Amino acid sequence: MMPGVRRLFCLKILLAAALLVVVAMARLPFIGNVLAGEEGDFAALVLNDMPTSVVSDTHLPRDQIGFIDGKPVLTSFHRTVMPYIILERLGRSFAVRHALGRLPAEELTVAARLPFAIIFVLGIVGLITLTVQAASSTRERPALAAALAPLGVTLWALTTPLAVGASIEPQVDGSVGVLLLGTSASLLAIGDIAHGAARRRFLVAGLLAGLGKHEWALAFAAATLGTFLIVLVFSSERRQTAFALAAFFIALAVAVALSYAVSPADYRNGFGIMESFYSRTGGRLWALEPPQLPFTLSVVVLVAVDGALLAMLLRPLLRTAPGLLLAYLGAAAITIGYIVSGWPGDFFPRYFTPPLIISAIVFVALWLRVSDRVAPALGWTVMAGAVLGLGANSIFLARTYDSKVALTSFRGTPLAQLQQNAAAAAELGHDRHDVVFTFTPTWIYYQGINYISAGLQKFEAEEHIETSYPAYKGHIVYPPDRLLYPLPPQ
Fold it and tell me: How far apart are CA 278 and CA 407, in angstroms?
């Protein structure tokens, strides 16, 4: 290896390591935050001594909604099961064995969050690689701004409150969602369409995009159609692009068909979940309200900036890299869909995490292609915006940490209150003849209680107990609502 090549290689390794260190440091203050709400369900998926897919009669991962008489109470996730298969297999490979009932609460929290953080890191490998390539491809002094800009944007995106929270939250969106869609977008972003491996890249990218949630597959199906129509109108190089898009769409369809075949009932239930998102919110644009903007504004800004860059570079990009347009349209469709849905969930907008990472990948890949033609003033402008964004991220995260409130589920709720709520619910469940109505984190921290999930409606919990555990009929203990459902952040 030539000395110059060796130095460049070492520089890239150091840059990648530095980025990963910053990513880790931004999350360390929050990885010990007490689990809340649905986080316990997903923590149980990776921490239970026996996988739910082994215990379940369907031999598929299942949502733990209770624990009675020493056995988990399992139900469907009511969505396509494939992301949960991936999460259970991959998450458990990174999880601490026999953690429940053995580790103290603080270590148990870290053990629950760490597998999801590792999966997130695997999902941003493509973004890190592209960023390092963009930052080290121009080494002349006049190109300093062009080299720093992608580093700044990537650091900003990865340290946003949304990315920090979602990456350590036991949930699908910030873990498997980033892994599948981040890797898919990276494959679409690298290389030229004329390269012999282009169709294979599009094929694998389509498979990955189709293995996720319904809305991700639908968004990328629409993005494929949109890209094809734009290519027809604005590009003369249609043949290769058409074949690549066809490969992507066929792979997407195969992945969706596979997901359906594994569990048709779960897949059909997913459409009901999507419908409930839209029908229960009344068109309220919750994600754009001021309390949510520290989390969602970064996604909206990146989607807008990427759209402007793509519009300016559309014709040459369609000839060489139509995958960038496909990835962008997929991210934009997911973003718009969740904004329009108005779904607040548990007050943390984790659903926007995959499009945040995709949009960052698209920006860096675009910058890599045009950095040698970028005016220094534009590079410094982008860098200045990234520095301002990093400052805003730091202020928000520091205030959240100093206030000792939750960053993810039940965002803004004092962590001490969440701990006290779980302890109070566990105290109610000490009588072995009762079943306490509480969230799964109570059981995570206080083994030995019978519980049914407060994620259910009370009448649903009573019906489930009456049907499946008649000996406990009339023995559900309900904590006060204030201990179960914190108020939304203002």
Answer: 25
- pLDDT at site 370: 85
Write out the two tokens for 425.
């619910």
Angle formed at CA 414 by CA 411 and CA 415, multiple of 5 degrees: 95
Q: Give me the sign of the Cα torsion angle 146, 152, 158, 160.
A: negative
Residue bearing the bigger pLDDT, 321 or 432 = 321
- The predicted model scores a pTM of 0.95
User: What helix, strand, coil percent values describe the chain, rounded to 5?
Assistant: 70, 5, 25
Bridge partners, residue 477, by sequence: 436
Which is it for strands 63-68 and 435-438: parallel, antiparallel or unpaired? unpaired
d(CA 136, CA 146): 10
State which H helix or E strand residue 63 sits in: strand 63-68
Q: Structure tokens of 137?
A: 């491809």
Q: Over the range 76-87, which residues count as b (16 or more CB within 10 Å of their CB) and which as e?
A: bbebbbbbbbbb
Distance from chain centroid for Cα 56: 26
Query: What percentage of the chain reaches a pLDDT higher than 70?
Result: 96
Cβ(215)–Cβ(337) below 8 Å? yes
CA–CA dist 426, 104 (Å, integer)? 16
Return d(Cα 328, Cα 220) in angstroms, integer.
10
pLDDT score, position 344: 79
Query: What single-letter amino acid sits at 240?
Result: Q
**Where are the chain's structural domains?**
39-105+414-490, 124-403
> Which of 7, 25, 69 shows the shortest CA–CA distance to 434?
69
| pLDDT, tens only, 283-310 | 678 888 888 999 999 999 999 999 999 9
Per residue in 132-149, pLDDT tens?
999 887 544 447 888 899
| Unique residue bearing structure tokens 């036991």 | 170
Give dist(CA 34, CA 465) in Å, integer. 28
For residue 156, count CB atoms less than 10 angstroms from its CB and return exposed for 0-12, middle for 13-18, buried for 19 or more.
Answer: buried
**Mind listing the pLDDT tens digit for each residue in 337-390?**
999 888 777 889 999 999 999 999 999 999 998 877 777 888 899 999 999 999
What is the DSSP code (8-state) at residue 454?
T
Asked if residue 217 lies in contact with residue 255, where contact means CB atoms within 8 angstroms, the answer is: yes
Distances (CA, A) of 99 to 15, 52, 74, 199: 35, 16, 20, 44
As given in the structure block, the two tokens for residue 468 are 């499946």
3-state DSSP call for residue 338? helix
Please choose, from the candidates 424, 458, 459, 456, the residue with its C-alpha nearest in 3D space to the C-alpha of residue 442: 424
Give the closest residue to 359 by CA, choosing from 185, 170, 116.
185
Sheet holding 476-477, edge to edge: 71-75, 63-68, 451-453, 435-438, 476-477
Q: List strand residue ranges (DSSP E) for 421-479, in order.
A: 435-438, 451-453, 476-477
